[in-house]
Write a structure and sequence with these properties.
Elements lengths: L1 H6 L10 E14 L2 E13 L4 E9 L2 H14 L2 E2 L11 E5 L2 E7 L6 E2 L2 H10 L4 E7 L3 H14 L3 H8 L3 H6 L1
């Protein structure tokens, strides 16, 4: 189990990444001089071709928070197996109270997913997928749960190799 977590990491320099802001939160620290506001940004980066990462950045200005989040996201990239524009199999993911379910979908379905999940799946380059977020709607946990589900995915080639059978037998067998 632990080996799959490390072997699908990707270097940020390998690909052209696009970033998408998932949520921006203004937080206040109360001091004797009044309230001090800062911003927390959650960003998802991906190349639209199976590589995706997420990051959290906090700063006094919005732009600073987003820039920090993008830097963190580029350090957390994973490779997702995409098979014919969708995911290879159904998978559940969990992080804290955030639970997600992702299912493969036929061509032309589109990305049927809510808010934070949609951003992660689109950044990963999945074009047809059915997704359901259960439990917490907190964007932090939903993004991390979605990343967990994507990390657990195995490609058809990987499964065939593990079982010691051909791809043909895997699908028609």
């Amino acid at each position: 189990m632990s080996k799959t977590r490390t072997d699908n990491r990707v270097k940020a320099t390998d690909t052209e990444l696009k970033d998408k802001l998932v949520s921006l939160n203004r937080v206040a620290k109360v001091t004797k001089g009044g309230r001090t506001f800062s911003f927390a940004a959650i960003v998802v980066v991906g190349d639209g071709n199976g590589t995706v990462g997420h990051g959290l950045g906090k700063a006094r200005e919005v732009t600073g928070a987003i820039a920090k989040a993008v830097d963190v996201a580029k350090k957390n990239l994973i490779k997702v197996p995409i098979y014919k524009g969708t995911i290879p199999h159904e998978q559940k993911g969990k992080y804290g109270a955030g639970k997600v379910l992702i299912k493969p979908a036929s061509d032309g379905t589109g990305v049927i997913a809510g808010g934070a999940m949609r951003a992660v799946l689109e950044a990963a380059g999945v074009h047809n997928v059915l997704a359901k977020s259960q439990g917490s709607s907190n964007p932090h946990n939903v993004v991390k749960a979605t990343m967990d589900a994507l990390q657990k995915l195995r490609s058809p080639m990987q499964i065939a190799k593990e079982r010691g059978i051909s791809l043909d037998k895997l699908f028609n067998g």
